[in-house]
Write a structure and sequence with these properties.
Blueprint (H helix, E strand, L loop, with lengths): L1 E4 L2 E4 L14 H11 L1 H8 L12 H13 L9 H4 L2 H4 L5 H14 L1 H22 L10 E7 L2 E2 L8 E2 L5 E3 L2 E5 L8 E6 L10 H14 L10 E5 L6 H7 L5
Parallel strand pairs: 3-9
Antiparallel strand pairs: 1-2, 3-7, 4-6, 5-6, 7-8
Helix pairs in contact: 2-3, 2-7, 8-9
């Protein structure tokens, strides 16, 4: 049924069997990570945080958390749904091991974030090149949309606060590459913010734009081939002046 290649098993899907595999929809995500080389890129990026005699690879653990979230999970313990299907997801670390990795990466702070972001940018450039005429920059232009979203919290969480809509939670600022009417947005940046963060804070829009541009292929990080779009919250003099600086 499977052959281990990289961080995840290679699964062959057939419709004629009798057995049922839970979370079979995750196969598409696993194959995407494997074929694009995202698993190997993240693994290489997080090598400095792998202990000499560690059993589980930090890169795979981080991808397992992302897969669990994509499959509906909302906490680290939800990697357990992957652990139940080793034929699809391979060996999955225990909850305490995953938690310790997140603590380690959080302690590393910007250094770990830079490593992860660099790996994502590298793989994104490769995927866009392979996509050819289906890539979001096939017409020569990339459109990045910035917008804030409200994420509700039902209990006390770090940075959770009252929001402008009188709810309680977080107010991250997101960046998505527009894939046109035939596709969905491709997330390239997320700036975590407390629930009471302002909607039209220019510094946050500038930071999110920097993060988004760093995820694009190098040819789109400067010049007019990239269009930054935002709603009225981004219509501040400071943000517009930053965008229009000479050389940017």
């Amino acid at each position: 049924m499977k052959k281990r290649i990289g961080s995840y098993p290679r699964v062959r899907v057939e419709g004629g069997g009798r057995a049922v595999v839970s979370q079979a929809g995750g196969v598409l995500l696993v194959e995407t990570a494997r074929k694009t080389g995202l698993d190997q890129a993240i693994s290489a990026a997080l090598t400095p945080w792998r202990k000499p005699r560690a059993v589980h690879d930090p890169g795979k653990m981080l991808l397992d958390v992302a897969l669990a979230v994509a499959l509906g999970g909302d906490c680290l313990a939800d990697v357990g749904m992957l652990r139940a299907e080793p034929a699809v997801f391979g060996p999955v670390a225990s909850d305490p091991t995953v938690s310790r990795l997140i603590d380690t990466l959080a302690t590393a702070g910007p250094k770990a974030l830079h490593a992860i972001r660099a790996a994502r940018a590298e793989v994104r450039a490769r995927v866009w090149k392979l996509a050819g005429t289906s890539a979001p920059d096939a017409a020569g232009e990339v459109i990045v949309d910035l917008d804030g979203v409200l994420v509700l919290a039902h209990s006390e969480k770090q940075d959770a606060a009252a929001t402008w809509k009188k709810s309680f939670g977080h107010h991250p600022l997101m960046g998505f590459v527009d894939h046109g009417s035939g596709g969905t947005g491709e997330p390239v940046a997320a700036l975590l913010r407390p629930g009471n963060a302002g909607s039209n804070t220019a510094a946050d829009h500038i930071t999110t734009t920097r993060l988004a541009l760093a995820q694009l292929p190098k040819r789109h990080r400067r010049g007019r081939s990239t269009l930054i779009r935002t709603d009225s919250a981004g219509g501040t003099h400071e943000f517009l002046a930053w965008l229009s600086q000479r050389g940017r």
